[in-house]
Design goal:
This protein has 2 domains: 87 residues, no CATH class; 135 residues, no CATH class. Helix content is 28%, strand content 23%. It has 7 helices and 11 strands. Helix 1 links the parallel strand 1 and strand 2. Helix 6 crosses helix 7. The radius of gyration is 20 Å and the shape is globular.
């Protein structure tokens, strides 16, 4: 997949080379990007949603810049200091939900990202029950209306067009860039907090049960850390 960098900041480009997210041979768009610049490509930088929807995926380097430095050109050293782990998004255009439509339409693409990271999707029903969506109907929660398959060798993928009851929230993401884990968080509580930030109605008990069923190694890690924390508390 072709990669293009959209940024005016030279220091960020140097940092991207350091973390081996780019090779240095990629095209760089330093002005306003156009649909032709990004269509079907892996874009590294920041784009408005209408352009990001034309890209295959968009990788952002979140920067926690202090208020006093905002709006200033950063050095490479400052970018290193403020940069967080890369986050990759896949933006799609969906039908605008209508109150009288009897449900909410949404889409999910199962294409893998760089470093063989897999796409994940949870669907949280209005009652807070958490389900894993893999492209199949979930009775009472998800109906797959259709799908579009794109044959691209290693990058082959399917986009699923779905409908769910009003109030349902789908949460999609890629495995973590650094660890390759579905949940890079250290504890049950941290992982659930991440999910609840996107789907406030999610129930912790349902989330925990799903992770135990679908992601045994992650559940074991969370359990081990929970036990360690309790043992430290008991020792105080």
């Amino acid at each position: 997949m072709e990669t293009v960098i959209v940024t005016r900041h030279k220091a960020l480009i140097e940092y991207l080379k350091e973390i081996e997210l780019i090779s240095g041979q990629e095209s760089v768009v330093s002005g306003n990007a156009t649909p032709d610049d990004v269509r079907g490509k892996h874009v590294v930088g920041v784009l408005p949603n209408f352009l990001a929807a034309s890209a295959a995926c968009l990788t952002e380097i979140p920067l926690r810049v202090p208020a006093e430095l905002r709006g200033q050109e950063l050095t490479v050293a400052q970018v290193r200091e403020f940069a967080q782990e890369p986050v990759t998004y896949r933006v799609t255009v969906v039908d605008t939900p209508k109150p009288d439509a009897g449900g909410v339409k949404w889409q999910w693409n199962d294409g893998q990202g760089s470093r063989n990271r897999q796409a994940r999707c949870f669907v949280v029903a209005p009652d807070g029950e958490v389900h894993r969506f893999t492209g199949q109907d979930i009775p009472g929660v998800v109906r797959v209306l259709g799908s579009d398959y794109e044959k691209r060798g290693k990058w082959s993928n399917s986009t699923y067009r779905c409908v769910s009851p009003a109030g349902t929230i789908s949460v999609s993401w890629m495995q973590d860039w650094g660890t390759g884990e579905t949940f890079p968080q250290d504890t049950w509580e941290e992982a659930f907090e991440w999910l609840a930030a996107q789907s406030p109605q999610a129930k912790f008990e349902s989330f925990e049960a799903l992770v135990r069923q679908e992601f045994g190694k992650i559940a074991a890690k969370f359990d081990e850390n929970r036990a360690a924390l309790k043992s430290f508390e008991a020792a105080i």
